[in-house]
Amino acid sequence: MSLLEIKNLEHRYGNHTVLAGLHLTLEEGEIIGLLGPNGVGKTTLMKIICGLIQTYDGSVLVNGAPVGIGSKSIISYLPERTYFRKSENIRSAIGMFRDFYADFDEKKAMEMAMDLNLDSKQKIGTMSKGMQEKLQLVFVMSRRAKLFVLDEPLGGVDPATRDYILHTILSQYTENSSILLSTHLVHDVEQIFDRAVFLKNGRVFLNEQVDILRAETGMSLDQYFREVYR
Ligand SMILES: Nc1ncnc2c1ncn2[C@@H]1O[C@H](COP(=O)(O)OP(=O)(O)OP(=O)(O)O)[C@@H](O)[C@H]1O
Question: Which residue of 30, 49, 64, 193 has the fewest CB atoms within a 10 Å radius of its CB?
Answer without folding.
Answer: 64
